[in-house]
Amino acid sequence: MPAIELPLPVAREPMKISERVASLPWLDARTSLWAQGFARLGPVLDRAQCESLRALYARPELFRSRIEMERFRFGRGEYQYFAYPLPALVAELRPALYRHLAPAANEWMAAHSLNSDFPAELDDFLKRCHARGQKRPTPLLLRYRAGDFNRLHQDVYGDLVFPFQVIFCLSRPDEEFTGGELLLVEQQPRAQSIGHAVRLGQGEAVVITTRHRPAKGVRGYYRTNFRHGVSAVLSGERFTLGIIFHDAA
Known about the structure:
Blueprint: H1 17-22, H2 26-36, E1 38-43, H3 47-55, E2 63-68, E3 75-76, E4 78-82, H4 88-111, H5 122-131, E5 140-145, E6 149-153, E7 164-169, E8 177-179, E9 182-187, E10 194-198, E11 204-209, E12 212-217, E13 220-230, E14 233-244
Antiparallel strand pairs: 1-11, 2-4, 3-6, 4-5, 5-14, 6-13, 7-11, 7-14, 8-14, 9-10, 9-13, 12-13
């Protein structure tokens, strides 16, 4: 009996970053942002992408500045801001994420009764930043080693601020580092602060509010103040990618 020839499987092209970002649970993310000021997006980057981004840290020509946190009493550890042009993967992630966050950003501004209209595309938003003198790119890589930490802070950089930013863990927890949880603290008016500790897997992303969250009260919405940081790394080395959408003055 002659052998039956089966069709060869068709190799699929890897999913583009924009497609992967579009497939994330954005409806759930927006609900979580309204409820608690942050939203886990799940895995976005694969291991190879995480390791390729980490490898960029050793290439100073890709960065505009390097900050040693202990020198400025920001904590311990260091980070570097990318220069323009951004590396390809970062340059793809930034507009893809912005596109899905801009509608929520406009909803938040309306809840705050602020007259702000964020355009649908990142390039148009950056034109506004640059017109105000905010021309320095803000995506960054952070490196923490044993004993390093990041004090609670906000990433503002100028008058024009996008209300969200996205954080990616590039290292494998428990295998490459321990400790180093993302810390979020929400200060509510006339009440004690609420704290969250977020443990991310490699390649996982979380959206957090940059400064405020609109919380629903009996008389409408009021603002709660947010700051974020990183708890002490207990062992190993932890790399993080931060995607901030407004440029710096």
